[in-house]
Amino acid sequence: MSVEVRAPAATRTLKFAEALAEAVDEICAEDPRVVLIGARFTGHTPSAHVMEPVTRKHASRIVWPPISELAYCGVAVGAALAGLRPIVEMSTATFSYEAVPQIVNEAAVIAAMSGGRVRAPVVFHMLYGIRGGGGPQHSGSPQAWWWNSPGLQVAMPSSPADVKGLLRWAALRSEGPTVFMDHQRLMELEGPVPTGRHEIPFGQADVKRSGGDVTIVATSIQVSRALEAANRLAREDGIEVEVVDPRTLEPLDRATIFASVRKTGRVVVTDESHENAGVASGLAAIIAEECFDALRAPIRRVAIPPTPVPYAESLERALIPDTERLVAAVRALR
Amino acid sequence: MLRIRRVEERCIAFAETGEIRAHYHLYIGQEAAGTGASAALAPDDYVFTTHRNHGHVIAKGGDPGKVLAEIIGRSGGYLGGRGGTFHVAAPELGIPHTSAIVGGSLPIAAGVAFAVRRRKGQRATLAFFGDGTMEEGVFYETLNLAQLWRLPLVFFMENNSVSAAERAGRGSPTSEHAAKALSDVPRAFGVETATVDGTDVEAVFALVRRLLERVRIGEGPFFIESRTTRWPGNYGAFPKLVGGTTDIAWALDAASAPDGVRAWTMESDPVIAYAAKLLWHGAIDAAALRAIDAEVRGEVDRAARFALESPLPQAEALAGVG
Prior knowledge:
The complex is a heterodimer. Chain A is of the alpha/beta class. Chain A is built from twelve helices and 14 strands. Chain A folds into two domains: about 10-195, 3-Layer(aba) Sandwich (Rossmann fold); about 205-330, Rossmann fold, CATH 3.40.50. Chain A has helices at about 15-30, 50-55, 70-80, 100-105, 110-115, 145, 160-170, 220-235, 255-265, 280-290, 315-320, 325-330, and strands at about 10-15, 35, 60-65, 85-90, 125-130, 155, 180-185, 190-195, 205-210, 215-220, 240-245, 250, 265-275, 300-305. Chain A is globular. Chain B folds into two domains: about 1-235, 3-Layer(aba) Sandwich (Rossmann fold), CATH 3.40.50; about 245-310, no CATH class. Chain B is built from eleven helices and five strands; from the N terminus they run ααβαααβαβαβαβααα. In chain B, helix 1 (about 1-15) crosses helix 11 (about 285-310) and helix 4 (about 65-70) packs across helix 11. The model of chain B has no long low-confidence stretch (mean pLDDT about 95). The interface between A and B is large, with 39 and 39 residues.
């Protein structure tokens, strides 16, 4: 898999996992306030090993907590209140369910409750999505929960350049709590990454492919799937798809999404979380409310059907919002 | 202690007039614990508290006017009315955030202690919480982590439903907890644990001062069980001023307290007990005691007026805090 990114001049090609590891390395080197609570950013993916030199180099900056998600997420919140910039690496995203009270009912409310006088700049990093064989409890996609929790920022990078730029910004610049969600299957994705201290402020969507006929608003791994679908649709149907990647759900760059929708009048929204009250639903509602006059067809969602993710490959495959389903959804708009 | 008592009596009045909009919790009967512990803390030490926070904030130096204004949701409150009675905090006093979820503040307190230790700082962190927190899973996770990482943290558990006779004993179980004594639990984790009569302000002060000295040289964490006896006004869903406001003259003769609160005043009221002790030792006389009370009443009257005159926050206060 590879993603086309219109990148500035000086770039190199890195895997997503390598760009992520590079970001963690730079973040630790540049800001002594950063502390890592857990550090398996690349999980058990084939590229897991790229974190090894980083964790060796910054061993003094890492604490390995007991299996106590609720307590160590709260510890991160407290450490942030006391002036550190903690990054919690939670590994599989469903483990964060154990810590919901601290993420949703503490970290998220602190700034609002104090009128912004008290801030908790903490990053909760997690690996979400259908990773292959995860079964019902290790394939979770909780992004809609976080997006539904005011006070949290939600980042969902789709490319090596974006994971580096967004993680650097979250860890080094942001003053609020961030849930940073990487899809487990993105780790092998290759793409150009700008050299130097590449950072992407939150709230800036990116048009990953230009096209005048249909807009696909896609998050995280759905961007790769949407780009594949776009290439096929161009080749087989002569349909030019524009792929808009919000990059962060909160804050959300509505202007870039609306501009694309107003240009094409046809929209598919896609995210690898469940359909029912999921991210695709939320994006569809926002677009319908603000751009109804520009729509020439109903908005279509491509997401996971509302059923727990099964183990068997044949069953799992049937749920994935893949390129086929995106192609079919775009064709159904005509 | 008396200042806390007078502020909280005012809370009941504010609830009766509808100024307090919803459920609230009082610290009456526990004043010696918060006051003794806070007197041992340095000004820049951290304190974490709970839904029952009014007394802790005042004990740490909180301004009664700003506390009362927050309790009734006014812009002059410590959080501009955004937190209310459940969440009174005072970042400038080392109380950055108050969770009203049982156990919610505990891992955050551990995180502050963790940050202090990583930076080789001297500031201690003391977390007040109730016995109910020991029914929550987060308590066990936090206790384990704090002990594994040797955090400079004092767990200050306030068991506020102990009978007068049991306060000095080994500890009484609660109906909701399987442990024979709650103080057995931290000991099982290897955490050094002390019990104290939470109505004895000098005993609490001496204990906390001793433990804080050890916290600052890296010997933490520690666990304290402070035992108090429930104030008769604290039994219903909403607090009631059983027996009326505290009459400081009860310190001269506790048996003169009215029915309903007499036994508690005689055996378990930390404010009256300490006033009586000061009188007994001749540290003050009755006239001086009345003068102190008059001064505190005046101060709390002014605080209540400040709170009532403070405007409601405007909707613009919601902007720009994402």
